[in-house]
Please model this.
Amino acid sequence: MFVSYYQEEMERASRESMKELQSKRLVGTVKHVYDKVPYYRNLMDAKGVAPEDIKSIDDLPKLPFISKDDLRDAYPYGMLAVPLSDTVRIQSTSGTTGRRVVAFYTQADIDLWDECCARAIVAAGGGKDDVVHVSYGYGLFTGGPGLNGGSHKVGSLTLPMSSGNTERQIQFMCDLGSTILCCTPSYAAYIAETISSQGLRGEIKLKAGIFGAEAWSEEMRRDIEKNLGIKAYDIYGLTEISGPGVSFECEEQTGMHVNEDHFVPEIIDPATGEVLPDGTKGELVFTCISKTAFPLLRYRTRDICVLSRKACSCGRTLIKMSRLMGRTDDMLIIRGVNVFPSQIETVLLRCGMTPNYQIIVDRVHHTDTFEVQVEMTTDMFSDTVKNISTRENELVSDMKTMLGISPKVTLVAPRSITRSEGKAVRVIDRRKI
Ligand code: DLL
Model:
């Protein structure tokens, strides 16, 4: 009884000091963006809220929301809160032309992002004796650079593999004794399958994996854990807020601790924008309180989850978010890449096709399959098989340029895709996540 009372007191005290820290940082950030970003000043003025009205995080609901549309309106420099000469890095979302979001970082922003990823690596049991094998993509995508920076901060030996060339990945894994694998869950499953088929399970020294950037189920986690002989940890993040490491899982594996000293989460009703109490499912919103170049306030992620303050057996008192339960928009994440149906429509129309198409996504052996069925025009229908397959290949190539990944394109007979009387059913997602 005494012990649990004492523990409750400790938790309350640490929550109160967290709130104090968050409030102090929020006040500074609001003033910073109001002074430096005309776009924010206009939004705040339109809502009748001045920086002086924000005194603590209890005042967060007074601030306007920011959405991906705002970032598109302000593209590329409109949300930048420091002179360009103070920035050192740009990253961009894993989609997309037209919908691309560009995020800017000062060196201080990179340092805090590294710190967040370092926390994820430490929570997965990483330390300076580990060999961290980073198979997320490098480049504009935040996965590779984020985990790379975190691993350096921890002092682990970092293997900047990037994705692809699975045989070489496995060879390095065996030769260099990689202990922690960082990649998308679907790539982890594929690596596991290849290791088994090559009979190399006994050669690898992996003990943990840090997997995120796309939805994955508890069943998939257990499967990867069994096949690689590791403990698999979820990691969440988005480019707009910094990248991976916005939240991370600990050994309890019951949701991800949010790095709330940098990113304050809220859950809202996506229809009304009303803030919902902890424990209620809704849309996740983040406010950056310690970034300088690109500190978004009340950014609507479109991701659906639940927040929980329940004590965690690992001892961390950071709030936890559940595994993601879906999205409020039509964005699909296929093999870690963000895909909007409207991009496919754009390609089809540009190529003189009709916008009658259907996207079929499935997951086979833990890998996403991605097919686009497109109706032929009537003149194409009488074409030769050879012409049709050339046309399919052209569409694959245009879609690869637009999306960053290649679907299988199948041309189907005119009017064969079921018409709908309401919204067209553009997506058939058979993945059980
Ligand atoms: O995917 C950052 C990242 C890289 C996270 C590596 C984890 C590991 P974006 O390309 O901007 O950034 O995509 C962000 O991906 O809004 C979610 O919908 C989805 N997502 C990210 N992590 C998870 C996860 C990176 N653990 C979008 N589970 C987010 C489910 C995730 N979905």
User: Anything to note?
Assistant: Residues 93-94, 136, 142-143, 212-215, 234-239, 243-244, 301, 303, 324, 327, 333, 338 surround DLL (CB under 6 Å). The CA atoms of residues 131 and 157 lie 5 Å apart. The mean pLDDT is 92.
